[in-house]
Design a protein that fits this description.
The structure holds three protein chains of three kinds.
Chain A (H helix, E strand, L loop, with lengths): L1 H24 L3 H26 L4 H23 L15
Chain B lengths: L1 H28 L3 H23 L6 H35 L1
Chain C lengths: L1 H20 L3 H21 L3 H25 L4 H5 L5 H23 L9 H11 L4 H9 L1 H19 L10 E2 L10 H23 L7 H17 L11 H24 L11 H25 L2 E3 L3
Antiparallel strand pairs in C: 1-2
Helix pairs in contact in C: 1-2, 2-3, 3-10, 6-7, 7-8, 8-11, 8-12, 9-10, 10-12, 11-12
The chains are: A mainly alpha, B mainly alpha, C mainly alpha.
């Protein structure tokens, strides 16, 4: 079981690595912001699997912190990449 | 009983890994920021949910299990919000070009 | 596991190289954020869960947000600065110097005698006296409390350094530009929903640090991030730095720490010594006093130097 979880963690890490290659190359800043989100999901999955494989205690706390701070970083990135005259508020034609 | 739980963990984690694969394939192959955003947010969040579901039988206390579910809910919330914000800012950038 | 470790190490080194060679500051910061969050996994593999928590909080979230703010400010001047980039020879020389330092460190670590000299035995033997279960907290707040006190004061100095960048006419004003967000929009929604959860998680990680990985620093970082989130969404405004409550809050933590240190000099014989039996209450008092100050310092450092007048 520990080997399977470790292998699953390695697989998820590989997916994160491949995703990072695409995202960090992506034209435009919006793609780069997605790096925060990719790590927020894939990184947490790899972390939890790793913690379960090695029976490391208190992994859930690290995952909680990672989730909160990845959300904060993603929002900070979006705020920074929006041009100063347009923030994240919807334009007049948005109704979402 | 523990064999059944182990089997459940293996199946759930394998499904989660498959969804991560699907999400990454979408990331690599989709042509557009918006479509890539779909792949990233939906598939990866579902993969994480299945992985956490698979790890739930292995936790040592109910409290840790609640923490894991909390992690998933937080990631869902932040994923939904971040993808909306990214998509809006990208669309505004393309409209202004 | 070896394959996992090797893959993780290779990924991190590749990311590091990419960050150095990225074309724009934004791309570099995005890569640096991913690098920080992946380092969390490395720390977990090295069984340093406390360090992993700190890396996730500070190295990932807070430093990423700090750098992206800097990159946003530098955006206009980036094209002009490109002509000032150092040439290839300087890059190669810097790379060789960095590799040499890394090799020296690796040789130093790998040639340590087995078992390597460390104070872990003494800490484990004496931890029971401090009445905390987490050896990291014991070291930080009992055996090496002086270092923690000096770190808190250094953070204050760093904040004063950031404030000193303000133009004279807005000294004492509010940091950062005025943030607007549609009060019915997504950003305002998340800034209303996430901070209560984040504050609870931050308090929990602070409290659990006595016996498990955690502590005041990670908890304060989470709380600072949540406060910054509400500022970014425009729900609250950054306070003017001339406000009394702000300045009192900043110095209250270190002052309590210093006061307990002097009390220790009187009652137990040395600065920052704890009388027998009072170790845990004093440690809790120090942590309770330091955490709000730390959260204030971290949030204000990220908010930056004052840019608007106080009104």
């Amino acid at each position: 079981m520990a080997e399977f979880l470790g292998a699953a963690s390695g697989f998820v890490l590989l997916m994160v690595a491949l995703g990072l290659i695409r995202i960090l190359r992506g034209p435009g800043d919006a793609d780069r912001v997605m790096a925060a989100q990719l790590l927020g999901t894939g990184g947490i999955a790899a972390l939890l699997l790793l913690g379960a494989a090695t029976a490391e205690p208190a992994i859930a706390d690290v995952a909680l912190t990672l989730a909160l701070l990845a959300a904060f970083a993603a929002i900070a990135f979006v705020k920074a990449t929006a041009a100063p005259d347009q923030d994240a508020a919807p334009a007049a034609d948005d109704r979402a | 009983m523990s064999a059944v739980l182990d089997l459940f963990t293996i199946v759930a984690v394998a499904c989660g890994a498959f969804f991560f694969l699907a999400g990454t394939t979408g990331l690599l192959r989709f042509p557009d920021t918006f479509t890539r955003l779909h792949a990233l947010t939906k598939a990866d969040n579902l993969g994480l949910g299945l992985v956490i579901l698979g790890l739930l039988p292995r936790v040592d206390s109910v409290f840790t299990g609640c923490k894991l579910v909390c992690v998933w809910l937080l990631v869902l919330l932040s994923g939904a919000v971040a993808s909306q914000l990214i998509a809006r800012s990208q669309r505004r950038r393309e409209m202004n070009r | 596991m070896i394959a996992l470790d090797a893959g993780l190490a290779a990924l991190i080194v590749a990311l590091g190289v990419w960050v150095i060679r990225a074309r724009s500051a934004f791309a570099a910061v995005a890569g640096f954020l991913a690098y920080g969050l992946l380092l969390t996994l490395v720390w977990v593999r090295l069984h340093g869960v406390d360090v992993a928590l700190t890396e996730a909080a500070i190295g990932g979230g807070l430093t990423g947000a700090l750098l992206i703010g800097a990159a946003a400010r530098l955006r206009e001047t980036e094209a002009a600065a490109r002509s000032e980039r150092p040439g290839r020879i300087v890059h190669v020389a810097a790379a060789l110097a960095a590799i040499a330092v890394t090799a020296a460190l690796a040789v130093g670590v790998l040639t340590l005698p087995v078992p390597a000299p460390s104070l872990a035995q003494e800490v484990a033997a004496n931890l029971a006296v401090t009445e905390v279960g987490n050896p990291i907290t014991g070291v930080l707040l009992a055996f090496r409390a002086m270092d923690t006190l000096l770190e808190a004061i250094v953070l204050l100095f760093a904040l004063i350094g950031v404030w000193s960048l303000a133009p004279d006419r807005v000294w004492g004003g509010r940091p950062g530009p005025q943030q607007y967000a549609d009060p019915n929009g997504i950003l305002a929604y998340v800034a209303r929903v996430l901070p209560p959860i984040g504050i609870v998680v931050g308090m929990y990680i602070f409290w659990v640090g006595a016996d498990h990985p955690g502590g005041k620093f990670q908890g304060a970082t989470i709380i600072a991030a949540m406060w910054l989130l509400t500022i970014m969404a425009g729900l609250t405004d950054a306070p003017p730095i001339s406000r009394t409550w702000l300045r009192v809050g900043l110095v209250a933590g270190p002052l309590v720490f210093i006061a307990i240190g002097f009390a220790g000099a009187v009652t137990a014989g040395a600065f920052l010594a704890y009388p027998v039996g009072y170790a845990k209450p004093l440690i809790i008092a120090i942590e309770l006093a330091l955490m709000p100050s730390l959260a204030l310092v971290l949030a204000l450092m990220l908010a930056g130097a004052p840019q608007r007048t106080a009104s």
